[in-house]
What we know:
By secondary structure, this protein is α/β, with parallel strands linked by helices. The chain is built from twelve helices and 14 strands.
Amino acid sequence: MTNSKDWSLKQDLDMVLTHAKANFLKLDGAHLFITGGTGFIGCWFLESLKYAIENYNLNIQATILTRDIKAFNLKAPHLANCKSFNFFEGELLTSKFPDIHLTHIIHAATEASADLNENNPLLMFNIIVNGTRKILDYAVEKKIKKVLFLSSGAVYGRQPWELERISEGWHGDVNCVDPKLTYAEGKRAAEMLCAIYEKQFGLNIAIARIFALLGPYLSLDIHFAAGNFIRDAIQGKEIVVYGNGKPFRSYLYAADLIIWLWHLLLNNDVSEPYNVGSDEMISIEDLARKVSNLIGNKGFRIQGSEDSGWNVGRYVPDTSKILKDYGLKKLVSLDDSILRTAYWHGWKG
């Protein structure tokens, strides 16, 4: 099990290079355009890309769309000042994208805010759908080789209790007139745009349906239970489960995630979706217990009220397709995912 004395981000990046070397070598001479490149997943794209460039002496450029380069410079100055990265400050919906030669696009910009979904669902839907269409139009204009679209496991809607894991062939339990599902419906519509642009314009688009995650750069103060539990445990507080603790989730570590995403960008030749997540399910109650046992010493408490979120049951992917097609599987355990996330946020163990 990971301990604070032998873990560093470099250890994770070495793992990424070990399992994704062939993919990075394919990028030599490439110029990528990345949206959402300064968020949680975006930072992993940049960390791994910078590390690969330095270790393999690759000629790779990336242009990254960001809302606030000054804020990112404070967050990750080693990435903000990397000579291989060019930051383009602007907004997804309103900015004119740069007129430069590009080879690949990674569209990771989205709005996953629970507050926005509750209070301004129209803006959320607009950013997801119209933002994706703008990116796809840009890909057509620039004659891009390959696009990676970061979708979500939310496209399946509410997962039935009797269905332990969702496969890509399950078409979902959706309700297109429930505003709580705005994020999910936005991602579904964006996936349809990807299919349309493949058919009509011949774009090659890989779709990653991402489930819950853990790892460095994950904010602990947003609406994700695992992050909140880790935050409270680090602070020496009792973990509070604001619900009945019965829903099931699973968590993929960010280093595993980025290996899978680089692989999909550079090897998936057809526009079909792949689940990207862990198939190791755990109830929210058991997750609180696990985090408390690993990190905290104040225990946990079940609030006892009924859950009212968009998905009150299971949210666990079947990842057998990506294993069968590409041999990709989870390498970092849930325990180590929790511990490494805590270490990143300053916990000393």
